[in-house]
Amino acid sequence: MRVGLIGYGFVGKTFHAPLIAATKGLELACIASTQAARVHQDWPGVRVCTPEQLLKSQDVELVVIASPNETHVSLASSALRSGKHVVVDKPFTLHLHEAQQLTQLAQSQGKILSVFHNRRWDSDFLAVRKAIESGLIGRVVHFESHFDRYRPEVRDRWREQDVPGSGVWYDLGPHLIDQALQLFGTPRHIQVHLGKHRAGAQTDDWAHAVLEYDHCHVLLHASMLVASGSPRFTVHGEKGSLIKRKPDIQEAQLLAGIQPGSEGWGIDPDPLEFWSPAGVMEHLATPAGNQGAYYAQLRDALQGLGPIPVTAEQACQVMSVLAAT
After folding, report:
1. pLDDT tens for each residue of 64-113
2. Residue 236 located in a structural domain
3. Domain of 74: which CATH number?
């Protein structure tokens, strides 16, 4: 199946292009970008075109949209109306009603529409999910998830400018929210607080959300001014606690030019800590991460051989939390 990618910024270059190319049964056929030289340096055999040309390409069956957030709706709508299946990078849209409209359009067109919530296949999340679902710590009462980084300088890129869909909440919030919804479902109440902490910040660079459930509180946090780092996950239950200190390594591997699926891919040397009620800590092995599973499952879904890895309806649920600001 031939795939067209719209956008070759950080996300398109770092995640989508290599993951698509590494998936058996998918071919990265063309990339819509204004930076042809940059694309050809990485993918010399891939055609470079405009988004309009890509959408008119008869040989492209799947369109992946990795362009700035405010363009997602118009491009996804055009792709669906052109008879293409569509993947949209997170966040799905800027507003919940737009996500719902795209979902209805995909249904009316009989096309698959999915959102790239790739962090479901991160090693840290897989480890915590496995431990929770096994009943190791009993009923969860406190779940804390952090994406904290130290980037004190405001960079010259659209994600850090005062434009629609920018800021750390719309950048990292979808990852945090989707993982929480996968574990606990829809919360009964949501509180979100955003802040600008860096000198010269034009949009939020600090976000803190509390999702309330009947017997559990979920804390989601992202900040650009955490020099010490934070545990990726801290989970407390009736029978013990879990701490996952370091994050998944796949993004670092992709940035280093390591190809998905190669030797050592996704292997996380940082174990999960299980703390018993007696205060005794035990290390548990962390499963390997595999974000490429998203595209492998999508390929199977397109062939009618399995479920869609992330449905548009699931992505709408993420949007309902994301928009609660």
Report:
1. 999 999 999 999 999 999 999 999 999 999 999 999 999 999 999 999 99
2. yes
3. 3.40.50.720
Mean pLDDT of 179-193: 97
> By residue range, what is the domain housing residue 214?
119-290
Dihedral, CA atoms, 83, 57, 260, 234, nearest 10 degrees?
Answer: -40
Give the count of alpha carbons within 13 A of 21, CB side only.
21
Whether residues 132 and 72 share a domain: the answer is no
Of 223, 241, 313, give the one whose Cα is nearest residue 278: 241
Other C-beta atoms lying within 10 Å of the C-beta of residue 216: 18
Is the dihedral angle over the CA atoms 309, 314, 319, 321 positive or is it negative? negative
Q: CB-hemisphere CA count at 13 Å for 143?
A: 27
Residues 42 and 169 both lie in one domain: no
Alpha carbon 147 to its chain centroid, in Å, reads 12
pLDDT at 24 over 80: yes
User: Looking at residues 114-125, what average pLDDT do you find?
Assistant: 98
How are beta strands 27-32 and 2-6 bridged, if at all?
parallel
**Beta strand pairing call for 272-275 and 281-284:** antiparallel
Residues 111 and 216 in one domain: no
What is the count of structural domains for the chain? 2
